[in-house]
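Two quick folds needed for the group meeting slides. Do the first one here.
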Amino acid sequence: MKKLIIPVCALLLTAGAVLLSLKLNKEEAAPEADSSEFVTITDAVPDAILEIRYFSTYNFVGERIDGYLEPTALLTKRAADSLRAVSDELLTLGYRIKIFDAYRPQCAVDHFVRWASDVSDTRMKSYFYPDLDKSVLFEQEYIMEKSGHTRGSTVDLTLFDMNTETDVDMGGTFDWFGPESHPDFCGNPDSGEFNGDGSVSPSGMTITAEQFANRMLLRNIMVKHGFKTLDSEWWHFTLKDEPFPETYFTFPVKQL
């Protein structure tokens, strides 16, 4: 009988190990954890400048955001190819692109949600949302539980002037929560017409014709090369033909 028991036990242990291995392999192969179709932006767009705000403490939360392990930026290969075309054209005009954020893991979005739920934490209010009560951030969709960035084909960026060696003046900072960040603030982005009307700003702020034109320069070249805009943020663009429109990725931001 003992001779029969030993092989059966061994068989059960082997079967258990196989099942565990299959489970682990299945978890490792989860599509949202797969970074194989992504690239480090500076590998694909070598002229890009990185200022990764969520790796730093200079952002609307005031601390490094979960999931940002290195100060780098990632995009899907398809989006990076289009961004390279944007960069190449801007170089002929004397500009480089400066990237604030690109792919954003779901844990980073979860970090934003936790922060927004704590209405007592207003340490960065004066820098990014002075005209808003923090309690309205969900209601007005400044903070959401899902972000297009997490699908991997969205990028936040501005222009850098190679002649003056400074950022181009866009009349407002990245991640400013308010109508001043809208592409149609003080003008019509479809026609490119500046109207100078700053009455929609709670604080009476306005932007100049030059600042509006700078926003339109970035917008027009991004759209030309296959990106679509967002009505609430002049710096935000998503590839129209994004390869993963339903996948919210989970792998961290680090050099690939």
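Then this one, please, same format:
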Amino acid sequence: MAQNSSIEWTEATWNPVTGCTKISPGCKFCYAERMAKRLKAMGQERYRDGFKLTLQDDVVELPLKWKKPRTIFVNSMSDLFHEDVPTKFIRSVFDVMKKASHHKFQVLTKRPERTAELTDKLPWPENVWMGTSVETADYTWRVHELAKTDAHIKFLSVEPLLGPIPNLPVSEVDWVIVGGESGPGARPMQEEWVTEIRDLCADKDVPFFFKQWGGVNKKKTGRLLEGQTWDGMPNRKEDQNGKENRSLVAVA
């Protein structure tokens, strides 16, 4: 239930919950659903019910056993804030993340309204980064819900980017990831959609990370944007004036 990750912006995954239900256009070709069906066909016991939401109680404390610090994507195969995940269970996951202070945890949800609703019931240590997904302009409201939480680091996963988002409120977050859809049936992404968000981030001094162009063969399309790799990450270190240093990183 934990493994090294090929996702460009993290190092490992940890799945105390598996399975989910679709709620918006970005879910249409869900990679986690495809993976769950594949694992079920392979006879993996944890996926005996395919992509049905399942609490994996026995792995909740797993990060406490990992001595080497790492950046961990929480629930790459689900959504911790799914309406069918009990509040008590969510709290237990947050308690573990607080105890495992040597790790960084990246929690991503398409249900930030529930995150905001529960924010006073959860511990928010600095090593927990909270994010939400925004795939089209119709879902920018998620950013405002995310902003209501007490997370120290808030981020956006604009993936799959399915259309232009000219007024993405990047000033409300600490980090923005953008990527195209990949795999069977992948919907195309236009370069101008990406550069528009990158420029918004540059204007507001918000770190920008370009993950991939996607497509049926994402390795072939790569992740160069205007000839560069964009690997911005949150940086909370303070400069001599007490202001946060947050950079938009591009590598030629």
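Slide caption for protein two: The longest strand covers residues 104-109.
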